[in-house]
Design brief:
The chain has 314 residues and is mostly beta strands. Helix content is 12%, strand content 33%. It has helices at 22-25, 60-66, 68-72, 105-108, 141-150, 214-220, and strands spanning 12-20, 38-44, 86-93, 99-101, 118-125, 130-135, 157-161, 167-170, 176-178, 182-189, 195-198, 238-241, 246-250, 254-255, 263-269, 271-274, 277-280, 284-287, 297-300, 306-311. The strands form 5 sheets. The protein has a 6-stranded antiparallel β-sheet with strand order 1-2-3-10-5-8, with no helix packed on it.
Length: 314
């Protein structure tokens, strides 16, 4: 098996009560049917319940397990993760998501979950769209518990007006929710543990209220986390650098990573060409470590073409 070309996977679409059809209308995706509200596309995923597979039938898990050096580079040969450590998604929120939290690493096992730190890049925001993150300044655990009893949790959660191009970092323990009117690229630890603490008193697609995880949420929420702000973009385009992922936003001609390095490209607007392969908005592709330097040149279609460059830290 040769790895001198981009590696792309077939998206796995997930129906959600808060989802819509904008991956079709804004990104040109071919959705599985004509009516279902699809809230998520799992684009790079190494989980048994939703394995990413190439058009040729090769799974991300097989690449991680059997072709680690050629695809992911020598730097990740010593990783002890049994699976590719990141999960990448596109989210289409046509309604507010539940107010939720992911468990910190210090207590995830005790709560029978997996820790999840993530980041959001807003590819499209309707006018007036909001994101919820952290607590309002001065809100206490007691205030939160009272709001839970009254059904007014949103009143104690910090609200941020969202704009296209904004980025927000969501470490484990930060209470949060994506608001209606947002199309988001999410880069996260390989985890599917979410504790809903408040779901706007609505029902799911089956007509029944969705399960809440109040006890687990209260153990996971960081009650010292007040009013976070969106990320500032560094001069080199860096959005987030943490122990789990490094993410930059890029534009203009450049190389996709260094020789011997694996990066993932996620196009957020316009089109780019890499090694003769065209990627459009909504497309994700791995640049394998074995890909030659000459094939790594990224050629944007125009000045409006932008993409995320995602790395797993050494």
């Amino acid at each position: 098996m040769k790895f001198n070309h981009l590696i792309r996977f077939t998206p796995i679409y997930q129906s959600r009560v808060w989802g819509g059809r904008r991956m079709e209308t804004l990104l040109g995706a071919t959705l599985p049917d004509a009516t279902t509200p699809f809230g998520e596309a799992w684009t790079v995923c190494d989980r048994p319940e939703a394995p990413s597979v190439t058009a040729d039938g090769v799974s991300l898990h097989e690449l991680w397990t059997n072709h680690r050096e050629e695809v992911f580079g020598k730097a990740l040969l010593n990783s002890t993760s049994p699976t590719f450590p990141l999960l990448m998604k596109i989210l289409d929120a046509c309604d507010d998501l539940s107010i939720q939290v992911h468990p910190p690493a210090s207590m995830a096992a005790e709560l029978k979950g997996e820790p999840k730190t993530e980041m959001w890049y807003i590819a499209h925001a309707d006018a007036g769209a909001k994101i919820y993150a952290g607590l309002k300044q001065g809100a206490t655990r007691a205030d939160f518990e009272t709001a839970l009893q009254k059904g007014t949790v949103a009143d104690v959660v910090h609200v941020i007006e969202a704009h296209t191009g904004d980025c927000l970092f969501i470490p484990s323990g930060r209470v949060h929710a994506i608001g209606a009117g947002l199309l988001i690229y999410e880069i996260q630890q390989n985890s599917d543990t979410t504790y809903r603490v408040f779901d706007w008193n609505r029902v799911g697609l089956d007509g029944k209220p969705r399960a809440l995880h109040v006890e687990e949420s209260m153990q996971s929420i960081d009650f010292t986390d007040f009013e976070p702000e969106v990320q500032q973009i560094a001069a080199d385009g860096t959005l987030v650098t943490c122990e789990y992922f490094d993410v930059k936003v890029c534009s203009g001609p450049k190389q996709a990573g260094a020789a011997g390095e694996c990066v993932t490209l996620a196009v957020v607007s316009g089109e780019i060409s890499v090694g003769g392969t065209v990627l459009k908005a909504g497309d994700f592709a791995l640049v394998p470590a074995a890909m030659e330097a000459a094939a790594r040149e990224v050629k944007p279609a125009d000045a409006k073409s932008q993409w995320l460059e995602i790395r797993v830290p050494e």
